[in-house]
Amino acid sequence: MDALTLSSSVNISKPFHFLTLSKKQQRERHPRTQFGVSCRGRKELGGGVEDNLYKVLSLSPKSATTDDIKKAYRSMALRYHPDVCQDCSKKEESTRMFVQLNAAYQTLSNPRLRAEYDCELGLRSEKIGVGDETWRYIWQNQLAELKRRSHIRMAQNQGSWGSRIRPQNIN
Amino acid sequence: MVEPAYTVTSDSETTGEEKSSTFPEIAIGIDIGTSQCSVAVWNGSQVELLKNTRNQKIMKSYVTFKDNIPSGGVSSQLSHEDEMLSGATIFNMKRLIGRVDTDPVVHACKNLPFLVQTLDIGVRPFIAALVNNMWRSTTPEEVLAIFLVELRAMAEAQLKRRIRNVVLTVPVSFSRFQLTRIERACAMAGLHVLRLMPEPTAVALLYGQQQQQTSHENMGSGTEKIALIFSMGAGYCDVAVTATAGGVSQIKALAGSTIGGEDLLQNMMHHLLPNSENLFKNHGVKEIKQMGLLRVATQDAIRQLSSQTIVQVDVDLGDGLKICKAVNREEFEEVNRKVFEKCESLIIQCLQDAKVEVEEVNDVIIVGGCSYIPRVKNLVTNVCKGKELYKGMNPLEAAVCGAAVEGAIASGVNDPFGNLDLLTIQATPLAIGIRADGNKFVPVIPRDTTMPARKELVFTTTHDNQTEALILVYEGEGEKAEENHLLGYFKIMGIPAAPKGVPEINVCMDIDAANVLRVLAGVVMPGSRQPAIPVMEVRMPTVDDGHGWCAEALNRTYGATLDLVTLQKKA
């Protein structure tokens, strides 16, 4: 029963309301709720942080506001931070999940990084302005990186591809 | 008094969780300041400060070696303040611990009555106390251990149970090497360190608890509050910016420096007696007495200047040396202008690192002994655009109360009223990285990274057919490697021979919730999924002493033959 309820949370439109209930249940029936939390944790781990950062924070990609992200981060932190982990055997897993939670929060709490991530997810494709700005930013970064590598190569006396090929052609 | 029994335990004593325990033992919080200390514990419903046999909650941080048997400020009572400055008493131990003799902080301690000698070559300073006309050597760790034994005895007597687990507050600017020295002193005293908490982080936890209680009473929804926490004691100045809501405190930025009340005092002593350093250089019995008299008089003057604008200094040092001078507050502030400017720049830097505007700060909290100095209050208020200071915390007790709360939380205590439904998400005070790209310091874990943390960076070889790489791990903020603290080193061997730039050397750094740092390094060849050699995992710091010499020796022996450069990996 708990597992079913918890697993269906992904589809609930108001995750925070559910989280509140979950917290109350956790107080009343500690052992079973803990089992439920573990089940959910495993499911999320299976998904992986790369697949969807919003799922790590139990958020809906389209409707999440900045405040929603902050609240979700705090709720999840209170659950997964190793300092509040009661079961010592789960401390390592708890730490790993907290690190993932931080990575998700770092990306989603930064407007630029979030917009970039949303483009990768294929979301908000209708907002051309945001996409345009993001891709310009990405393109400029890539260009700067190419220049940096070129300078490193020149500094190492390798020169350009052309300058390496020309002696071979002479031979 | 019986000689306090402390044991020298193995260096393998570790910070972190106990393996198993039959019952939860609540960790106590200890705040050993440079000049004062206190102990607190969660008593089931609130934090309680423990008292010694003289009913004191706040005790002096010193150990006296007179009568051959060392005793600390916890149980021992000096007959008068001058006795602390007789040369037989070691204080400022927190300022000396884990430092080498080229450190300016160590040099500043040479003006103290006990003996501090330096050879200026990067080794430990020589420290001794004057006992029966003989200089008896000791170390800051030993002095701290003796002091901790007394604290532990006091706590055990009061709580009527064995004390083993502790949470200690530490300055933000402490390096990992200094933290290991603190842990070692605790181990010598039979104490296990559960957490070492930066002082403003402990204050943030207490603030979070207060906000939580206010929220409960007002049935609030837990609005986010930004707090600026400024802590200045006798030895250190620390700043933190935190975001708190719903019992969760996020440390957004930390900044720390080795300036404090001791610097204010030394500057004033020099102002009152300009030639004092030369006069006291010999450390003879007469000079020590003179030094002590000057110190007491100057301390009194500074204390009085907190409540009045002018004070008369009258002291007879003997040998026809007299000081008779009226000192006003402006004079004191001018003599210490650089110290106050440094404090101000710390606050500004911390706000910038946190990406927080002054207008966004909800509460400004000042703690520490120097918070009573008008100029300190003014400079914090000025930076914060005149915002009123937070009331509701005792400046001398806030850090130890926060440490006690953390001790309860880390010990797994569950409070039915929700007073411990708290979490402090800590941040790294300093960057950690390796030497690469020539002689640069390349951070893998940047400053103010949320803990626990796990980050990795990919590097590659600098020479064709290079089969080994030397990993030098540093901590600090300098751009060149040697400007930082060397934490440790190890060598990666068995890199497959290939043209330079081809092997991918992954360096991962992992900090757990107990602030234990592990460095992992692995080698992957392009196109291959399997690591080329077994991954190495090294717990840091491994350099125990003389890290300056160690870095020099490594550089002299290996030069650039085993260097790495950063490889920017595009996924």
TrEMBL record, chain A:
<dbReference type="InterPro" id="IPR018253">
    <property type="entry name" value="DnaJ_domain_CS"/>
</dbReference>
<dbReference type="InterPro" id="IPR001623">
    <property type="entry name" value="DnaJ_domain"/>
</dbReference>
<dbReference type="InterPro" id="IPR036869">
    <property type="entry name" value="J_dom_sf"/>
</dbReference>
<dbReference type="GO" id="GO:0009507">
    <property type="term" value="C:chloroplast"/>
</dbReference>
<dbReference type="Pfam" id="PF00226">
    <property type="entry name" value="DnaJ"/>
</dbReference>
<dbReference type="InterPro" id="IPR053232">
    <property type="entry name" value="DnaJ_C/III_chloroplastic"/>
</dbReference>
<feature type="domain" description="J">
    <location>
        <begin position="52"/>
        <end position="121"/>
    </location>
</feature>
<protein>
    <recommendedName>
        <fullName>J domain-containing protein</fullName>
    </recommendedName>
</protein>
TrEMBL record, chain B:
<dbReference type="GO" id="GO:0005737">
    <property type="term" value="C:cytoplasm"/>
</dbReference>
<feature type="region of interest" description="Disordered">
    <location>
        <begin position="1"/>
        <end position="20"/>
    </location>
</feature>
<dbReference type="Pfam" id="PF00012">
    <property type="entry name" value="HSP70"/>
</dbReference>
<protein>
    <recommendedName>
        <fullName>Heat shock 70 kDa protein 8</fullName>
    </recommendedName>
</protein>
<keyword id="KW-0547">Nucleotide-binding</keyword>
<dbReference type="InterPro" id="IPR013126">
    <property type="entry name" value="Hsp_70_fam"/>
</dbReference>
<comment type="similarity">
    <text>Belongs to the heat shock protein 70 family.</text>
</comment>
<dbReference type="GO" id="GO:0016887">
    <property type="term" value="F:ATP hydrolysis activity"/>
</dbReference>
<dbReference type="InterPro" id="IPR043129">
    <property type="entry name" value="ATPase_NBD"/>
</dbReference>
<dbReference type="GO" id="GO:0005524">
    <property type="term" value="F:ATP binding"/>
</dbReference>
<dbReference type="InterPro" id="IPR029047">
    <property type="entry name" value="HSP70_peptide-bd_sf"/>
</dbReference>
<dbReference type="GO" id="GO:0140662">
    <property type="term" value="F:ATP-dependent protein folding chaperone"/>
</dbReference>
<dbReference type="GO" id="GO:0031072">
    <property type="term" value="F:heat shock protein binding"/>
</dbReference>
<keyword id="KW-0067">ATP-binding</keyword>
<dbReference type="GO" id="GO:0042026">
    <property type="term" value="P:protein refolding"/>
</dbReference>
<dbReference type="GO" id="GO:0044183">
    <property type="term" value="F:protein folding chaperone"/>
</dbReference>
